[in-house]
Amino acid sequence: MTEPLIIGESKAIKDVISTAKKLAASNTITTLIIGENGTGKELVAQLIHCYGDTPDRPFVDINCGAIPEHLLESELFGHEKGSFTGAYAAKKGLLEVANGGTVFLDEIGTMPFGLQNKLLKAVETKRIRPVGGIKETTINTRIIAASNMDLSEAVRMGEFRQDLYYRLNIGRIFVPPLRDRGEDVLLLAEHFINYYNREHKRQIKGLAPQTRELFKRYAWPGNVRELQNAIARASLLEVNEWIGIEHLDIDLKNQKTITPHFDSKQFQSKTQEHNEFKIPTDGIPLEELERTIFTSALKKARGNLSHAARLLSISRGKLRYKLEKLNITY
Hints:
This protein has helices spanning 11-23, 41-50, 69-77, 94-97, 113-125, 151-156, 162-168, 184-200, 209-217, 223-237, 264-268, 272-275, 286-300, 305-312, 316-325, and strands at 31-34, 59-63, 78-79, 91-92, 102-106, 127-128, 137-138, 142-147, 171-174, 206-207, 242-243. The protein is an alpha/beta fold. The radius of gyration is 23 Å and the shape is globular.
C-alpha cells in the first residue's frame, strides 16, 4: 500500500502522525481511532499499516454500520457452506483474508453487542471460527477500530462491551476536527485545488482574498471531507482564476460561531429527530412507558429496526431484546 498523504503543518495533526508511527511498531497492539466524521480516521489507519512490519500485506476496511447485522458476522469471520440461507459456498472472512495485514473496523460502536464478544475473543486469542464451522483458524491480523462517538459513554450506557473497549483502547489516537487545525485549512484548500485542476482540467490559481478569510473563520462541521467537496464543486463552477464565495456550497456568509470541541456530549446529544416523539412521563408505570416509547419509535421508523435504534440512541441488538421482553411485534 502506498503511504497515505496527510496534509497539515499544525501541531495537532503532527501529533497524530507521530503517535500513529509509534503504534505501528508493534503488530500486536490494537488501536482505537476517535474523531468526528470527515476528519480522516481511515487515512490514519492506513498510515499505521504502512509503517508496520508488513505494509505489503492486505489492508481491509469494513464499515460496521453499513452492513446488516445478520451479515456482519459472516463478513468478519466467514461462513461454511449451508450455514444459513444463501450460503451456497464456503467463504473466508475478512479477518482471515487480511491475515498478516490489517483490518480497519470503522464505526465500531455500531457493532451488535453479541458480536462484540466474538471479536474480543478473536483479538485476544488470534483464532477465529466461521459461522457454521467447528474448526478454528489462527490469524495474525492487526485490528484497528474507529468511532465518531465516545465509546466510554457507550460502555456506561451498556451498549458497548467494557472488556472490548479496554482491549481496543490500548493504542488510542484522537484525530482533531478541522476547526482545531488552524493553518491546515488553507494548506488543504491549496492541495485540493491542485488536485481538481488536474481532474477537471482547470487552471484555478487559488482562493480569492475574501474566500481565504471566510475559510479561516468557518467551523467546517463536515471537516476535511466538507472542505474537499466544496473545492470540488467550486472547481467545476468557477469561471475565473480565483475561487469566490459565490460558488461555494456552504453557508459561509452566515457562519458566526465555532462549533464546540469534540466530546462525548456532542455525540450523545439528542437531535431534532429524536425529540419528535417525546412522551409525557408523569404518573405512567415504567413498563407502559417503555412500551409507548418503543412502539412510537418503531412507528416513526416504519418498522425499520436500525432506524428505530438510532432514534432511541441504543444498539439494534438492545432494541430487539427490549421488543421481545415487552412482547412488541416487529
